[in-house]
Fold this protein.
Amino acid sequence: MSEIQGYLDQNIKVVAVVSAFYGVTETLIARASAEKIAVGSVPYADLVASGEMRSAQELTRYLIKHELPAAVATPRELGFTAQGSRTSATPKGIHPQALQQALTAASVVVVPGFSAIDDQGDCVLLGRGGSDISAVCLAETLGLPAVCLLKDVDGLYDRDPNRFTEAKRLTRVDYATAKLLGGELIQPEAIEFAQSKNICIEIAAIGKPGRSVIGNATSAQTTASAQVPADYMVADELIA
């Protein structure tokens, strides 16, 4: 909440894109399997995306309880469309007017990540780590030059900091290096989309001052010598 409050103190409105709580998506996938809900069906997508919906509702209630002007805006309400596979769709766009109306109504707009709707209005998923590309798409719709993804580590490292004590955080990283090093920390499709729209991605952690910036700048770490980290958890995303 402190990050959101910090933006509001600067009179900057916030769009917070949230992921499901840790382990919830896996639980929902297991439930779908147990109930024999076909992968790739609309009921499957609806069920698996419900974790993010719950997170958005709970964050909004928490913010309102602490007297912050927040409201949920679902992908359907924002006209966030995507096409392709039901479980790994490619974003098409977000209705700019719907997003602006949401920001007019509340200074903090909480958006469930990971899902969108197809041309028929049915739920589609944006692939593993899809909340990342949700956040980048929202930044692009608002014409922002950068998006901040809040993770459980304070940036992108040259190797897994949980396994290597000598791991170094990279302050500035080019898109190609970020894709190589990102592992499960950042969705590759989100990096590709950000690059195509010339949007910088900031990787930060709640309560920590350090961060990495992914953009066109040349990285100090070359892609040839980079070591790929693994097993990161995407907690949530925040764009302002």
Notes: The chain has two domains: 1-127, 146-240. Residues 81 and 120 are 10 Å apart (CA to CA). The longest strand covers residues 146-151.
